[in-house]
Design brief:
The protein has 27 helices and 24 strands. It is α+β, with helices and mostly antiparallel strands.
C-alpha cells in the first residue's frame, strides 16, 4: 500500500514538472535560508554553555550610586572574591580575572602581547579548560607562573611540552610556564593567550587594589552550590555591602549594589564592559526571518497546489467513483507533499554546504552543521522530521481541499473552485508581500542607521584632510617613559608627522571611572564620578577638541600638572551648571587629587553613537601609556616606516605596534554592518521565493482566463488593456500587504533603534520605497506571464478546452 502511494505520488509530481520545479526551488531556498540562520542563532546561543557547570556560574557586577546617579560597571573589587568565598557557603569558588598586556621575551623572540590576564588559582575549577601539559589544580598556585595556549607555546618555543621553561617581561619579571592548555573556543566570553597567577600581581601591584571597596579592577565570577538562586545570592550581597563597605561609602557619598549575570546568557544580554556582546534582539529577529522564509515557501506550495485544483479535479472524481475515500486521497496528496519537501531538504543541504564558506565570511563566525550540537544520527532525524513537518504544514490544506471534491460535479463538468479558496489564496499572497515589504523596509532602516552613525561628526578629528590619528601603545613602559619628551620631539620632527601627544586612553577605548567631588552651583560639595582622561599638554590640540569656556592645559601654569581639571559640557550640566562657563573656577578632585576646574571642553563621542556622551574629566598625568600622532596623509606607508625605524633605534626593547583611531570606530560599527548585510541577503531571498510563487500563480491565472482573453482580443481589446486586466488584482494584493506591513515594521524597528543613543528617524520615505520596490518586483513577475497570454494567438485561445 505504501509503495503504491509513493509510486502514484512520484508519477503525479512528474506530470506537473513546472509546478514541481517551482515548489522544490521555493522550498529548497526557504529551508536553506532557515538552516543557515539556525546555524548562526545556535552559534550565538552557545556562548559559554560548553562549561559543564555553566548553569551555576555567574559574573558579579556592581552599580555605583552617587547622589541618585547610577554608574553601571562590569568590573569589581579585588576584595570581593575572597570575601564571598570566605563568608558565604553558597559560593563554592570565587575567581578574579583582570586583563593586562606586556612584552614577552624568549631568547631573540619578543612580542607585545595584549591578550594576557591575571587569574586566581581556582579559575580552572570553575571553567573547563583542557590542559595539554601541566596540572590545572596547581598551575597558578605559585607566584610568577603562567599558563600558555598551545598557539603561544608554539610561537615562542616551537613545541608545546614547555612546562618549566621561563619567559621574561619588560617589567624585569621572569615567568615560569606551569601549563599549556587548548585555546578557548570562539564561543567563549573569556579569551586570553596566557593566564598569569594573580598572586604575582598581589606581590607587585599597589595595596589599594586588594582592600578598597571602591576600586574596581577585576572581573569576578562565582560558582554557586546547586539549588542556590540568583535572587537569594544577590540578597546576601546586600548584607555584605552593609557589613563591609557602607562606612567607606559614606566617605565617598556613594553606595554599591551588587548584581549577578548568568554566564549562559551574559553574551546576549549584558551591556556592561569587560566581555564581548551579542544581541538577543538580533537572535529573535533572525529567528523570525527563518520562520518567514519557511512560511513563504509553504504559502507558495499551498497556493500553487490549490490553484491547480481544477487540473486534478477529474482525477479526484474518477478515484472517488472507483471507491477512493476522502482519507485515502488526503494521504495520497500528503505523500506527494512530503516527497516534495524531502527532495527540497536534500537540495537545501547541498545549497547550505555550497554557500556556507561565503556565509562564514559574511558573519565572521565559524559555522558548520555540527554547530547544532547533534550527533550524525540526531541531525539526520532532525532534518527528516523538519521535512515531514513542512510537508504536512504545506500540504495539509491542499490535500483536504482536493479530497473534498464531489465526484458527480467534477465528472459532469459543473465543478468550480470555491470562492473561499480563492479568497484564501489572495490572503496568502497578501501575507507574502507584507513579509517582503517588512523585510525591505527593515533592511533599509538598518543601513540608514549605519550611514547615520558613520556620517555623524564624533566631535574630534580622527581622520581629516589635515591628517589621520595613529596610536602607538607602549603600556607605560618605564624605559619609554624615561625618554618620553625626547622621543616625542623626535617623532614630531619626522617629515610625515604633524603633531604628537600622549595619554592613558583614547576615544574608542574604555576609560577609568573616577569617583570624586565637584563644587556645586550653591557652593556645596557633591559626590560624582567621571570618565577620567589622563593626558599630556598637547592632547586637546592633536585631538582637535575645542574649549568652550575657560582655558585648556598650558605648561606655563605650574599648577596645571598638579591640580587642574577640565570637564566636558555634559559633566558641567550634570553637576548643575545650566551655563557651563559658571563651572570654571570651581573646586574639583578625583582619586585623591584636589584641584580646580580651569575649562570646559566641547562634548565629543568617545564611545561612538550607541552610548550617550558620558560625564568626562581630564587632567595632566605623567604615567602615559601611548603616543597619538597626527600623520599627514601624503605618504602614510613611508611615514609609518620612518616611525618604526626611529622606534627600533630609540627603544629597541619594545616591539613597535600601531593602530589608526578611526579604524577603532569602524570596528565598532562592523557588527551593524554585518547585521545589515545578512539581513539584506535573507530579505532578498524571501522576496525571490515569494516571486517564484507569484510567477506560478500568475501563470495559472492567465491559463484559467485563456478563453476570456481570446474573446476580448477578437472584440478588439488591446494588449496593454489585457495586461492591465490580468495584473490589477495583484497590485491590489500588494497594496493590502503594504498596509499590513507598515505598522508592524514601524513598531519593530522603533524598538530596534531604541538601542542606539543617537539614531535616525523611522520616516515614511523608507516605507514608500519598500512598497514601491515590492510593487515593481510583483509587476515584473506577473506582467511577464500576462504579456505572454495577451499576445497569444486568439484562435488558439478560443480552441482552449
Amino acid at each position: 500500500m505504501l509503495l503504491t502511494t509513493l509510486k502514484v505520488a512520484w508519477r503525479a509530481l512528474l506530470r506537473r514538472k513546472g509546478t514541481t520545479a517551482l515548489n522544490v526551488a521555493g522550498l529548497a531556498l526557504g529551508l536553506a535560508g532557515a538552516l543557515l540562520i539556525a546555524l548562526w542563532v545556535q552559534h550565538e546561543r552557545a556562548y559559554d554553555r560548553f562549561h559543564t557547570k555553566s548553569d551555576r556560574i555567574y559574573r558579579v557586577v556592581v552599580d555605583y550610586i552617587t547622589d541618585g546617579r547610577v554608574a553601571e560597571n562590569g568590573f569589581t573589587q579585588g576584595v570581593l572574591a575572597p570575601t564571598l568565598e570566605a563568608d558565604y557557603p553558597e559560593v563554592i569558588e570565587a575567581v578574579r580575572l583582570t586583563s593586562t598586556g606586556n612584552v614577552l621575551r624568549v631568547g631573540d623572540r619578543q612580542f607585545e602581547e595584549g591578550d594576557l590576564a591575571y587569574a586566581d588559582a581556582d579559575v580552572f575549577a570553575v571553567f573547563d579548560v583542557p590542559f595539554l601539559h601541566g596540572d590545572p589544580a596547581t598551575a597558578l598556585t605559585e607566584p610568577f607562573t603562567i599558563v600558555l595556549t598551545e598557539e603561544m607555546a608554539l610561537k615562542y618555543f616551537d613545541r608545546t611540552d614547555v612546562v618549566g621553561e621561563t619567559m621574561d617581561t619588560n617589567d624585569g619579571v621572569s615567568l615560569t610556564v606551569s601549563g599549556v592548555a587548548e585555546a578557548a573556543p570562539e564561543t567563549s566570553s573569556i579569551q586570553a593567550d596566557g593566564l598569569v597567577s594573580i598572586i604575582t600581581l598581589e606581590q607587585n601591584g599597589p595595596d589599594w587594589m586588594w582592600g578598597n571597596w571602591y576600586a574596581t579592577n577585576f572581573q569576578t565570577y562565582i560558582l554557586l552550590q546547586e539549588g542556590v538562586t540568583q535572587a537569594a545570592m544577590e540578597a546576601k550581597m546586600v548584607e555584605m555591602f552593609d557589613r563591609y563597605a557602607r562606612a567607606d561609602g559614606a566617605e565617598f557619598g556613594a553606595s554599591l549594589v551588587f548584581l549577578m549575570e548568568p554566564l549562559e546568557t551574559m553574551y546576549l544580554t549584558s551591556k556592561r564592559d569587560g566581555v564581548p556582546h551579542g544581541s538577543l534582539a538580533n537572535v529573535y529577529l533572525f529567528s523570525v526571518i527563518a520562520l518567514f522564509l519557511v512560511l513563504i515557501a509553504c504559502i507558495n506550495f499551498a497556493n500553487l497546489s490549490t490553484a491547480r485544483s481544477l487540473e486534478r479535479a477529474k482525477e479526484v472524481g474518477v478515484r472517488k467513483t472507483v471507491g477512493g475515500t476522502r482519507a485515502s486521497l488526503a494521504v495520497q496528496f500528503l505523500a506527494e507533499a512530503i516527497m516534495l519537501t524531502t527532495a527540497s531538504m536534500v537540495l537545501a543541504l547541498l545549497l547550505v554546504q555550497a554557500v556556507l564558506p561565503a556565509f562564514e565570511r559574511l558573519t565572521e563566525k565559524s559555522l558548520s552543521l555540527s554547530t547544532l550540537g547533534l550527533p550524525t544520527w540526531g541531525l539526520v532525524l532532525l532534518l527528516a522530521s523538519i521535512a515531514i513537518a513542512v510537508g504536512v504544514l504545506a500540504g495539509a490544506y491542499p490535500a483536504f481541499v482536493l479530497a473534498r471534491f464531489r465526484p458527480a460535479a467534477v465528472l459532469k463538468g459543473t465543478f468550480r473552485t470555491s470562492p473561499r479558496g480563492a479568497a484564501l489564496r489572495r490572503g496568502l499572497v497578501v501575507l507574502q508581500f507584507a513579509i517582503s515589504i517588512a523585510l525591505i523596509a527593515a533592511t533599509a532602516l538598518v543601513f540608514r542607521q549605519l550611514d547615520y552613525m558613520q556620517a555623524r561628526d564624533l566631535g574630534f578629528a580622527a581622520n581629516t584632510e589635515e591628517g589621520r590619528l595613529l596610536e602607538v601603545p607602549f603600556g607605560g613602559d618605564e624605559q619609554v617613559l624615561a625618554q618620553y619628551d625626547a622621543l616625542k620631539a623626535q617623532l614630531v620632527a619626522l617629515p610625515g608627522v604633524a603633531a604628537a601627544t600622549g595619554s592613558q586612553t583614547l576615544p574608542g577605548y574604555g576609560s577609568p571611572s573616577a569617583g570624586g567631588i565637584v563644587e556645586g552651583p550653591d557652593g556645596t560639595a557633591q559626590n560624582v564620578s567621571v570618565d577620567l582622561y589622563m593626558v599630556d599638554f598637547d592632547f586637546l590640540d592633536v585631538m582637535d577638541l575645542d574649549v568652550v569656556a575657560g582655558r585648556g592645559f598650558d605648561p606655563a601654569f605650574s599648577t596645571d600638572s598638579t591640580s587642574s581639571y577640565l570637564l566636558n559640557e555634559t559633566a558641567a550640566r550634570e553637576y548643575g551648571y545650566a551655563d557651563v562657563a559658571d563651572a570654571v573656577g570651581k573646586d574639583a578632585g578625583f582619586w585623591g587629587r584636589g584641584g580646580t576646574i580651569i575649562g570646559i571642553v566641547e562634548d565629543f563621542h568617545p564611545y561612538g553613537l550607541r552610548s550617550e556622551i558620558p560625564t568626562l574629566g581630564m587632567r595632566i598625568e605623567n604615567r602615559i601609556t601611548r603616543y597619538t600622532l597626527r600623520l599627514k596623509t601624503d605618504d602614510l606607508p613611508a611615514t609609518i616606516a620612518s616611525i618604526e625605524d626611529l622606534w627600533q633605534t630609540t627603544v629597541p626593547h619594545r616591539p613597535f605596534s600601531y593602530y589608526f583611531v578611526d579604524e577603532t570606530f569602524d570596528e565598532q560599527y562592523r557588527a551593524e554592518t554585518r547585521f545589515g548585510q545578512v539581513f539584506g541577503v535573507f530579505a532578498a531571498l524571501a522576496i525571490f521565493i515569494a516571486c517564484l510563487g507569484l510567477f506560478g500563480l500568475a501563470s495559472f491565472t492567465a491559463a484559467q482566463r485563456t478563453k476570456e482573453i481570446g474573446v476580448r482580443k477578437v472584440l478588439g481589446a488591446s494588449v496593454p488593456g489585457l495586461v492591465t486586466l490580468l495584473t490589477k488584482d495583484f497590485v491590489v494584493l500588494v497594496a493590502v500587504g503594504f498596509a499590513v506591513a507598515v505598522p508592524v515594521v514601524w513598531y519593530g524597528m522603533s524598538e530596534w533603534l531604541a538601542d542606539f543613543a543617537y539614531r535616525t528617524n523611522v520616516g515614511v520615505v523608507v516605507f514608500l520605497v519598500a512598497g514601491g520596490l515590492a510593487l515593481g518586483v510583483a509587476l515584473l513577475t506577473v506582467m511577464s506571464q500576462s504579456l505572454r497570454a495577451a499576445t497569444a494567438d486568439p484562435i488558439k485561445a478560443l480552441r482552449y478546452e
